[in-house]
Amino acid sequence: MKDIHFICTYCHKIYSSDHVHPRCDECHEPLEVETVERGTISGGNSLNQTILERYADFSPFVHIDKQLSLGEGFTPLVASPKLSSGLGIKKIFFKNESQNPTWSFKDRGTVFGIQHAIRCGYERIGTVSSGNMAASVAAYGSKAGLRTVILVSATIPMEKLNPISMYGPMVITVDGDYGDIYFRSLDIGKQNGIYFINSDVPFRVEGSKTIAYEICEQMNFETPDYVVVPTSSGGNIRGILKGFEEFKLSGFIDRVPRMICAQASGCSPIYNAYAAKKETISRVDNPETIAHAIENPFPPSGNEVLRKLRIQNGIFVAVSDDEILHAQKKLAEDGIFGQPASAVGLAAVKQLMNRNMVKEDETVVCIITGGGLKYTAVYEKHNLPIFNCSLDNVNSFIAHHA
Ligand SMILES: *Cc1c(COP(=O)(O)O)cnc(C)c1O
Ligand SMILES: [Zn+2]
Questions:
Q1: What's the number of domains the chain is made of?
Q2: pLDDT digit string (tens) for 266-298?
Q3: Structural domain of residue 213, as residue ranges?
Q4: C-alpha to C-alpha distances, 348 to 184, 188, 288, 290, nearest whole angstrom
Q5: Which end of the chain is more exposed for a tag (fewer CB within 10 A), N or C?
């Protein structure tokens, strides 16, 4: 490890780099790795590099174990002239994180977290997840040969369980919502020697910084006006913002984009706190949204996202399931099939344009956080037409209808 420290995001208490508990002893808010103020991008060939190597100056590790990588990151930034003219906005891009090894951005944080777990001597890792973090930690845990314990809420859609179990971890469904299980896992980890790579632990946030670095490189260091992040625990949006801030301090970019924290209105604790002008989030009772991947009623980094985005003039928004489904279909019709949570970004841009908060001469990047095949139950909501024809009639059918 480099000579780095963890700092409490709220009271700024300092902790040493071998500290594993992700929250402050004093104020219980999340810890983060101290900000890198000067770094460069490693040269070399990104085709045979890991994100850890390319952005080594910005990672806390001296020694990088390449064997732990599954080829995460370096995802495409796809421009959509069709959707930008449909919305009446200058430019809209999609950072397609569904092209990661386990089909979500979670792999970036997992590869960082597992480096730290092994460095600290752990032989067991775990996570608490509504699906994607579980699949990611299970995959990387198996690759590293570590015993892996996955805690999921018993309300998880069944189709998400087998793709986690396939990697060979111990999967335990637990009665209780994601918010409860997260806080319980901190003690379970301490008592059983399990390093929990949860959604907003400091190294997971470090991994998400690389999304910002890649966007900067892909846009030739001309940053967009906004970056829209579908938000649950808040770990990803914190990491992306930190990444832009570090690249600004290092002189790569002139300005940090405004962050848009996008939530589903069926579970929007961060947006609710913002709208009510509160300093801290409150638990959402009976969360319900089609965007299961962001259905966390009590996000562990919620207060920190409120603090950070208020300082940087960010935007908080909540969109309905109808808006999400509409956006999911529009995205797919432009070639990008994300899961419902991933479509929350586009739905948010549309709403903010209607409210004149995002303007027509601006540029937006939406993070497509995870792939559409993760949640196939959504097909039912889309009324997808499929035709049937005998072989003899295909020709005339096409001639008349195509
Ligand atoms: C985890 C996840 C999110 C939310 O990320 P947080 O870091 O928990 O805010 C959004 N979309 C998808 C698809 C995810 O898997
Ligand atoms: Zn503190």
A1: 1
A2: 999 999 999 999 999 999 999 999 999 999 999
A3: 77-100+203-381
A4: 33, 37, 18, 15
A5: C
